Structures are given as structure tokens and as C-alpha cells.
Amino acid sequence: MVDPLKQPKLYPSLFLGKNEGYISFGAGQPDLPPPKEVYDDLHLYNSFQYGLIRGEQKLREKVAIAHKVQPDDVFITNGASEALQLSLYACQGKSVLLTKPYYYSYPPLVEFAKKQPVYTNLVQGKINYDNVEKKLQNKEADAILINSPANPTGCVETPTTLKKIESLTHDLNIPFIFDEVYSDLIYQGEHYSPRKENVICIHSFSKTFSLCGVRVGYLYTKNAELLQQMADWKTHTSMNTSLYSQAMALNTFKVPPSYIKKQLTIWQERRNHMAEGLEKIGLDFWSPEGAFYVMPKVPNPTKFAEDMFFKHKLICYLGEWFGAPQRVRFSYATTVENIEKGLKIVEKYLATK
């Protein structure tokens, strides 16, 4: 039996490497293999000199075509995390409006950029536009960061809401940072990418092609001044993004559309098992419409997560890390068999409380 006085406090890095014997509802990364086109010809790659700060031209051209923008609008980064960091550093002002719940890295990234996080609470997992409008018009924030499909909620914002925020921020001349890394993983609803001059869209190859550890993402914006500021920052920090990673990213454009369609079918099946299982248990949650997360409300979340990990070898993340202290976050980036086993553990545990 675990001695509670010696039991370490839960934190995300505690779960790293916990694979054997554990069921993970924690991991925010696909467990599916990347397509073979990504790495089949990498043994031929032999260019290891410094690269372009904004990213290699061929990759930027492919990204530009995919998003119907210009290559000069595209900036290749060390994962979406660096794209977020550069965007926040480059934006002027002292505060950034975030939705709550939020992705747990957002507040620290805002603070690292010497800005203050300001929050608007989601309603049933969705943005309350009236509250966003009020906070921005009252100048409570100088920029806004939105994630859709969302980590940790799994919710997808409607095009109507996003278009209204796009117009509002444009009229107020406020940067709109839009994190769309899960845009290829949508089961319900429709994805919309804002395009006005004040918008910075953040994307990645990680989620769609199972390349999280490769660390290659990108952003695109029409704002040339912001792009130059980002290039100045990156020149003196990480310099160019890994050329080998960019070669892998370039190869993703050889992958047939059927790959993404097949992956989406797998994710949707897992989503259905997770949602139906949680509903059977009787937990309150927002129906996941995209990405691979769901946030059920559980009694005493801290004890629940600790007991799951230390006593039942089931990993889940505390909702308080995401600004939702009454909830936990489950990822269904695992097999249907694991989802069913994990939910049985949860159901049995809660039945004794």
C-alpha cells in the first residue's frame, strides 16, 4: 500500500515513460504510427548546414498551398509551442485573453512573454462571445488566444463565433492568435480558419501525422511586421528549425488523403467508446467534437487522479492544470480495448464512493 505521506504530488512530467502496466488517458499525443511516406527516403538526406530562419522554401511553399496563403506568410518553427511563444513575444501589449479551461501551457507562455493572462469562462465548453466582446472592448486584454478544436475540452468553436471574434479583433486592431493544431481531427461541426491581417494561425504536423517528437510546426499570418519580429527572436534563440525535421514535414505532402480519412475513422470510434462509457457511468462532460480529449467532472478530482495513478495504474490529468478544478482530462489516444478497461476501473472506483 502507498504511504500517502510519501506519495509525490501529481504533475504532468511524473507520467513520462509510464507505459508498461499502465493505461494512459493522459497522453496528448497520437499512439498511431506515422505514414511510411514521411520517413521512407530519409536515408538519402545529407544536408546538415544551417538553414533559413523562417523555414526551408520548399516546405513553406507546400504549407502555403495547403492553407491558400503566400509562402512569405509562413514561418516554420520547433513545434507549435515555439510558434505560440514567438507569436506572444511579438504581439504588443500587456495582457492576453484566454478561455478557461485552457491548454495548460498557455498561462506560462503568456507570462514568459511578460504579459498577464486574462480569462473568459467557457459555457458548456464553448466561447461566450458576449463576454469576449465586453472584455476586449473594455481593453481588459491586448490580444486573444483561442484553440479549436480544443485541448482540453475536445470542443469545436462554430464558424459563426470565430468570424465574429475575427471581425471584432480586426476592428479593435487586436492580435488574434488561433491555435488550430487539431483541425484535421473533427467529428462534429466545421473548422474555420480566420484570415484577416491581425490573425496569427498556429499549426503543426504532430497531431495529424503522429510526429510529436519530431518537433516541427508552423504559423502563418499576413502581418509582415510581426513575422520580422519573430525572425529577430528566433535568430538569437533557436536559429533554424531542424532541417531533418523539416524534411520529414515536407514528406507529409506525399501522404494520400485516404491516410487522414482512415485515421479520423479510428479516432471517431475511440471518441464514441469514451463518450458512451462516460455517459453510462453517469459523469458530466462536454461531448467531444474534435481532437482526442474529454473533461468529465468527478468528485474530489485530486484524490481521484492520485488513486487512479498510484492504486489502479490509470493515468489521467488534473483539471486544475487546465483551469477546471472540478474536472479531470481524459485523452482517448489509446486503443478501444484500453478505453474499455480504463472506464471499467473508473466505474468500479466511483461506485464505492
Uncertain segments: 1-7
Q: How many domains comprise the coordinates?
A: 2
CATH fold assignment of the largest domain: Aspartate Aminotransferase, domain 2
Largest sheet: 7 strands, mixed
How would you describe what is shown here?
The two termini are 19 Å apart. The strands form 3 sheets. A 7-stranded mixed β-sheet has the order 2-8-7-6-5-3-4, sandwiched between helices. The protein has a 3-stranded antiparallel β-sheet with strand order 9-12-11, with helices on one face. A two-stranded parallel sheet has the order 1-10. It is built from 11 helices and 12 strands. It has helices at 57-67, 79-90, 106-112, 129-137, 159-172, 206-209, 224-235, 243-251, 257-281, 301-312, 336-351; strands at 23-24, 74-77, 95-100, 116-121, 144-147, 176-179, 199-204, 217-220, 293-294, 314-315, 317-318, 328-331. The model is unreliable at 1-7 (pLDDT under 50). It folds into 2 domains: 12-33 and 257-351, Alpha-Beta Complex (Aspartate Aminotransferase, domain 1), CATH 3.90.1150; 47-254, Type I PLP-dependent aspartate aminotransferase-like (Major domain) (Aspartate Aminotransferase, domain 2). It is globular. By secondary structure, it is of the alpha/beta class.
Features:
353 residues, alpha/beta, Aspartate Aminotransferase, domain 1, Aspartate Aminotransferase, domain 2, seven-stranded mixed sheet, three-stranded antiparallel sheet, 11 helices, globular
